[in-house]
Amino acid sequence: MIINTAKKRIVLDLKNTEQTAAIGKALSSEIRLDILKLLIEKASNVSEIANIFDIPLSSAALHVKVLEEANLITTQEKPGVRGSQKLCGIAFEDIYFNAFKHKNELDNVKTYEFNMAIGNYYDCSIAGRCGIISEKTYLGVEDSPYSFYDNNRFEAQLIWFGTGYLEYRFPSYIFKNNRVAEVSFSFEVCSEAPGYQNDWPSDITIWINDHMVTTIYSSGDYGDRKGKLNPLWWSDTLTQYGKLKTITINSLGCFDDSVKCSDYTVDTLELGKEHYISFKIGVLPDAKNPGGMNLFGEKFGDYPQGLKMNVRVDHEGDRKD
Question: Measuring CA to CA, which residue among 263, 258, 232, 265 is closest to residue 137?
């Protein structure tokens, strides 16, 4: 069995030093290189890796963690005789390192930031277990899609649902008379389980201008510790925090964090065609892992932001037609 069969290109540079260093660390071990060779041939669980390389199970788990954190492999929990095991698969095809990218970006480059409150969605379609809370209280009635049309929904700091989507619209005026080199969207997200379940996989899909650009794999609904920004009244038995994800579109394609996820570019997505850029996030009812989603605001979870769009402009006043 092979998991995550779509292999992507990983693009590195000296600007995103955290990701570059993580991959450098992952590739600096001969045993981890051998594990990658194994996973190219077949998906394997942690016990199998430990047996094949004659290393302790704890060491195999540590090597897998380092490779997963570097986005070199994907993991998926699978039930086994002695409890669940992580099934590991290769996640990339090649790695491209542009050492001069940060230097080339210094001239005639400007970045614009647009922040969107998570309650400021333009449209939605919600089903299953769902709800919205502000910093102080629940908004509307829990598990009722009617709550998503509450007059106070703009105060939302946490939104959750089983299946469906939220659509946000960002202004696109920056594309007028400017050459846009890159657009990125960042947000904190996780799965949605009753209470919380750290092992609760979900496939969270992203659409940009109605094009499906990627599906994010979320391994769980995280609640093993208090979210760094959570209000005191929020119960410890519920969702606490998510993972910060960044979707980037440039001339090379579309990237889920640093891993290429599709061939869509700034031009092919026609980001400047309308007066707005549509960003849609949700869970399909027929997803392989329909584990719902939680979306975090600036005062909830671990990261002090809602949904953020960054636009990098090269050569202002010189639009590329």
Answer: 232
What sign does the CA torsion over 189, 282, 284, 195 have?
positive
Prediction pTM value: 0.71
Residue owning tokens 């919600």: 126
CA distance 80 to 60: 17
Residues of the chain with pLDDT under 50: 1-5, 319-321
Give the pLDDT score at 267.
93
d(CA 217, CA 206): 11
Asked if residues 301 and 245 have their Cβ atoms less than 8 Å apart, the reply is no
Residue 85 has a pLDDT of 80
Sheet of 123-127: strand order equals 123-127, 163-171, 276-283, 202-208, 211-218
Output the CA–CA distances (angstroms, integers) from residue 231 to 136, 139, 235, 248, in the order listed.
Answer: 8, 15, 9, 31
Residue 105 is predicted with a pLDDT of 59
